[in-house]
Each structure stands twice: as C-alpha cells, then as structure tokens.
Specification:
mainly alpha, about 325 residues, disordered N terminus
C-alpha cells in the first residue's frame, strides 16, 4: 500500500473529483504546471549560476548567453522538480507542507506530470547544447538525473545522509555557469561547487528540524528524524565551519580580491554565530518555537545570495 492509498478515506478522492478535467480552469492549470517546476527553488539556483558567469568572464559576459543559460537552467531544474513531485506524490499527500502540490490536489494528473518533466528534461538538454555548449548540456542533464534518480529514487527514503549527497545536484549550476562562458572547468568553479555542497546540509537541516514530524510520518529518515536536536546542531556547526573555510580559498588562489574576501568574512562570521547559537539552544534542551531553528534557515538564503553577488561584483573592483 502506498502513502497515498493510506490517506484518510475520501480525502484524495475529493480533491481529484473537484479538480476533474472539465472543472479545472485554464489559468489555474497553467499555474499548476508552473508550480511543478518549484520556481522559488530555481531562483536560488540561478543566483549561483549568473554570478559565476561574471567571475569566469572577469567582467560582463555576453547577455544573450546569460539569458540562454538562465532559460536552460530553469527548464532543466523545472524538469527535475516535476519528476521529483511525480515520484514523491505519495508522501507529498501525507505531508502538511506539500499537501497542496498539483499532483496531490489533482490539478495535474500523474501522467501529465511525468510527460511534462520528461519533456522539460529533453528540451533543456537540447537548448543548452544548441544555444550554449554541449559541456553545459551534459552537466545540466547530469544534475537532473542525479536529483531524480540518485537523490529522489535512491537516497531520500533510505538514509539520513540523503541531503548531503543529494545536494550535489544543487551544486551543478555553479559548474554550468562557468562552462557556459569558458566551455571548460576551473578550480574556481570547483571551489564554489564545494561551497554549495557544504552549504546545503546546514541550510536544509534547520527546515527539517521544523517539519521533522512530517518526515517521520512518511518514513523519510531526514537527520532530524533519526537524531536528536543536539546531534543535528553539532553537524550543522561542523558543515558550517568547513563551508566558510572553503569560501575563503578563492582569494589566496588568485580568483577574487578584497571585496569578495570582506563579504565572505562578514557573512560567514554571522553564519557561524547563528549556527553556534542554534547549537547552544539545542544543548540546553530548548525545543519548540524557542529553538529558533528557522533563523539559520532564512539566513542561509541571505548568505548565499550575498556571497554570490560578491562573486559577480568582485571582478570590477580588482
């Protein structure tokens, strides 16, 4: 029996009936397909793509190339997200924060979601290959397959390290941004890849702490589900220190100057303050709203945005 089949009787059926094909407004349907791509997450991916293009160019890259890369990135990540929702529709139906996703409410049928995701995957790969370069196309396809197959199908429901290794897919836009400009790789791109790799767990674990009951209900072993807040907070601090240290490697290797370094130090220092504050609250046995785990989650988004803006601005100040 799947998670969807184990829902309270009549809940899924009511959603599907009220959203039957003849009763689904076109506008709502369009918005439902847009929702399948998870636009808010893609915004974050593009924030790490475009600044790297400025760094690779050491100035302003070709704006048409930037546009083509952003469109291709949106299509690829959107396809991956749609396929993720198709695969996870059973547990999405049981989790409060995902219970209104289009495949759960019936606004989009599973078949439509699958076809939509596969189409975006194919179109995005061709788009990158024909309008950017084929290295970027293969990196994009690799990221999509890693997210859908390795993370969603293999890791997510089997290990508490799911987000650690599954997060590799979210690191790929950095490599794609660099390859779009240079059609090659560089240690600068690898370093920024590693920044996002070590950023992802301490970014996502605070949110997982907040909604761990949701994950526990559907049997997804996110770290906060299988470990105490104290253990999770300790892991957050560990990854945070490595992330900040890696972010500072760009300057001694000659890729960035004083501006990036200053931003990395200030934002990284504030991150570490918040991470240690969360650890102290967890050590003291604080729970509920007083744990304030979402402070670090929200700051993590600000941090990565400011850091990558600095990546883009730094070439103009050297």
């Amino acid at each position: 029996m799947t998670a969807v089949e184990s829902r309270p009787p009549g809940v899924l059926g009511a959603s599907s009936t009220s959203s039957s094909r003849g009763q689904r407004p076109i506008g709502a349907r369009v918005m439902a397909f847009v929702a399948l791509t998870k636009p808010r997450i893609i915004e974050l991916l593009l924030i790490t793509t475009v600044p790297v293009m400025f760094l690779a160019e050491q100035g302003v890259p070709d704006l048409w190339l930037v546009l083509a890369t952003c469109v291709g990135g949106y299509l690829s990540a959107g396809g991956a997200n749609a396929l993720n929702m198709y695969i996870d529709r059973d547990i999405d139906a049981l989790m409060e924060r995902t219970s209104q996703r289009p495949l759960v409410t019936g606004m989009v049928t599973p078949r439509e979601g699958l076809v939509f995701g596969l189409t975006l995957a194919a179109v995005s790969t061709a788009w990158f290959g024909l309008l950017v370069n084929w290295l970027s196309a293969w990196l994009s396809l690799g990221a999509l397959l890693f997210y859908v197959v390795v993370y969603t199908m293999i890791l997510k429901r089997r290990t508490s390290q799911n987000i650690v290794w599954g997060g590799i897919a979210g690191c790929m836009p950095v490599l794609i941004g660099w390859s779009a400009v240079t059609n090659s790789m560089s240690w600068a791109a690898v370093i920024l890849f590693l920044v996002i790799f070590f950023w992802t767990p301490p970014h996502y674990w605070p949110l997982s702490m907040k909604v761990k009951d949701d994950y526990a209900r559907v049997g997804v072993p996110m770290l906060p589900v299988v470990a105490s807040n104290k253990v999770v907070a300790r892991q957050i601090v560990l990854y945070s220190w490595v992330m900040v240290a890696v972010s500072l490697l760009l300057t001694p290797l000659g890729y960035t100057g004083w501006f990036y370094t200053a931003v990395a130090l200030v934002t990284g220092g504030w991150w570490l303050w918040e991470a240690h504050a969360l650890q102290n609250r967890a050590k003291n046995g604080t729970t509920g709203a007083k744990l304030k785990e979402m402070r670090l989650f929200h700051w993590s988004i600000t941090y990565v945005s400011l850091l990558f803006v600095a990546v883009a601005v730094d070439p103009f100040l050297r």
